[in-house]
Amino acid sequence: MRSERSIFVLSLILAAALLVPGSASAATDIGRVAPDGAVLADCNSDTAHVTTPAAGTNPYVAPSAGVITEWRFRAEGNPGTVALQVLNVIDNSTYAPIAETPAAALAADQLNKVPARISITAGQIIGLRTTTASHGCYAVSQTGFTNHQVTPAPAPGSGPTMFGTGSGDAATNIAATIEPDADGDGYGDETQDGCPKNAARSDDCVAPSVKIDSGPKKKTKKAKAKFTFSSDDANAKFECSLDGKKFSSCSSPLKLKVKKKKGKHTLEVRAVDGNGNKSDEASYTWKVKPKKKKKK
Fold first, then answer.
1. Parent domain of 137
2. Which residue in 142, 168, 219, 237 has the most C-beta neighbors within 10 A?
3. Do residues 125 and 43 make contact, with C-beta atoms less than 8 angstroms apart?
4. Shared-domain flag, residues 169 and 259
């Protein structure tokens, strides 16, 4: 009976977890840069390349939608100038270019990492286009892969294009990182979008936090009070309000004197970051009860 109850409770927990919105999936790497020591091919300028595997899942195809935030190319010798392309797959030899990054002049004899911002949907494939003659556009002796190519390279939006049967046991020398794009604004959520839940903004929209670290005794006879407060953002500025008055700039430590010397008083503090994001208010209430005057 206990076992059945445990299974039932676990089922409820799992169901609830599925109903609660969570963070977007983590970044995904697709494609395949040439392995160390691989023999690289020379390629003509204005040539487009894609790769298909003999069997199984194509590692160059996006498994989910997102934004390509970086692409990579392993260079030996003179890699020339290269661009990453995103293409729709029509069949194993026909592709339709959808978008393309700006061409990058790559450095020789190293793994090039090129920042990018280009959207991709599930099922689309990445390839490369040489804009100059290039050494290393694909690696040979890569069993189980075929590098397809066409000259001249089709431009994005030009429609389906037949790529040649290409070179067997060869793989295009390109890989990319896809980050999720929860709000669909075209910025990768992990490294580019400071506001991944608001498509209208890509700058930082996360408010800082604030806390009041110290204040007067909760019951005091003094009209003067001293407060200290802090934020998780070291560069944040502060605004304060005493007894419901308008917020104004303030700093920590804050020294003040209440005009109404008797009764309860409340100080509210909020933090404001460099982008104008304001924290929730932190408040501190204390009571001033002055000494009774001795009767003469």
1. 24-179
2. 142
3. no
4. no
One-letter amino acid for residue 271 of the chain: A
**Cβ–Cβ under 8 Å, residues 129 and 85:** yes
Q: Tokens 């995904």 correspond to what residue?
A: 28
- Report strand pairing: 81-91 vs 167-168: unpaired
Q: What is the CATH number of the domain that holds 88?
A: 2.60.120
The reported pTM is 0.70
Nearest to 162 by CA among 146, 149, 171: 149
112 and 250 housed in the same domain: no
Query: DSSP characters for 154-180?
Result: PPTTS--EEPP--EETEEESEEEEEE-
* CA separation for the pair 233, 160 (Å, rounded): 51
> Is residue 37 located within the same domain as residue 174?
yes
Task: Return the residue matching tokens 């109850």.
Answer: 5
Cα torsion angle, 129, 109, 117, 33, sign:
positive
Q: What is the rounded distance in angstroms from the CA atom of residue 291 to the CA atom of residue 294? A: 9
Report how far apart the first and last C-alpha atoms of the chain are (Å, whole number): 80
Query: pLDDT-based confidence at 157, cuts 50/70/90?
Result: very high
Hey, what amino acid is at 80? G
Q: Structurally, how many domains does the chain consist of?
A: 2
Strand partners, 89: 95
pLDDT, tens only, 183-236: 999 999 999 988 888 777 788 888 899 999 999 999 999 999 999 999 999 999
Which amino acid is residue 253, in one-letter code?
A: P
Q: Which of 66, 49, 67 is nearest to 116 (CA)?
A: 67
